[in-house]
């Protein structure tokens, strides 16, 4: 039920041989994703229930971080999921290459926990790997 936010394999930072210069979780003067402090407890019954306190709530359009490349381009990475920000990956701050070398594992950006009642509709709206590849193929053919 958790969502791990990563760069898509078609993202320009993964496709164009760019070098990542900087990752910034400071979204505005008053908002840093690094200030997200989650505390709480979990109870074990038939379901695993999380009680989170202090987690920042995100909308689909909430920026998570900004990534700058050595060629001066800056990319804002958005949550794309409504839910609570559980964790940001601070390891990519000291080792930005993880985003490119291991984007779907150690190079993740953040972990978001959607509301339980919304999680089913979120997963139903996701593309399969095959559907995603078809979208990429259409984009490439229309760009040529």
TrEMBL record:
A single MF term (Gene Ontology): actin filament binding
Nucleus is among the record's keywords: yes
Chief location bin: other
Gene Ontology CC annotations of this record: dendrite; filopodium tip; growth cone; lamellipodium; nuclear speck
Xref: Pfam families: GCV_H (PF01597)
Compartment list: Cell projection, Dendrite; Cell projection, Growth cone; Cell projection, Lamellipodium; Nucleus speckle
Keyword Ligase: no
Superkingdom per UniProt: Eukaryota
Biological process annotations from GO: dendrite morphogenesis; regulation of actin filament polymerization; regulation of filopodium assembly
InterPro entries named among the record's database cross-references: Abitram, GCV_H/Fam206, Single_hybrid_motif
Keywords: Cell projection, Nucleus
PANTHER family assigned: PROTEIN ABITRAM (PTHR13651:SF0)
Family indicated by similarity: Belongs to the ABITRAM family.
Protein name: Protein Abitram
Organism: Pomatorhinus ruficollis
Organism classification: Eukaryota, Metazoa, Chordata, Craniata, Vertebrata
């Amino acid at each position: 039920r958790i969502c791990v936010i990563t760069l898509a394999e078609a993202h320009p930072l993964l496709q164009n041989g760019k070098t990542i210069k900087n990752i910034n979780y400071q979204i505005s003067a008053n908002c840093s994703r690094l200030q997200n402090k989650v505390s709480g407890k979990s109870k074990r019954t038939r379901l695993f229930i999380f009680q989170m306190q202090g987690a920042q709530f995100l909308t689909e359009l909430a920026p998570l971080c900004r990534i700058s490349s050595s060629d001066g381009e800056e990319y804002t990475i958005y949550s794309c999921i409504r839910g609570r920000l559980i964790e940001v990956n601070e390891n990519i701050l000291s080792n930005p290459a993880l985003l490119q070398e291991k984007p779907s594992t150690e190079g993740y950006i953040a972990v978001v926990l959607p509301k339980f009642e919304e999680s089913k509709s979120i997963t139903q709206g996701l593309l399969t790997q095959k559907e995603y590849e078809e979208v990429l193929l259409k984009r490439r053919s229309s760009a040529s």
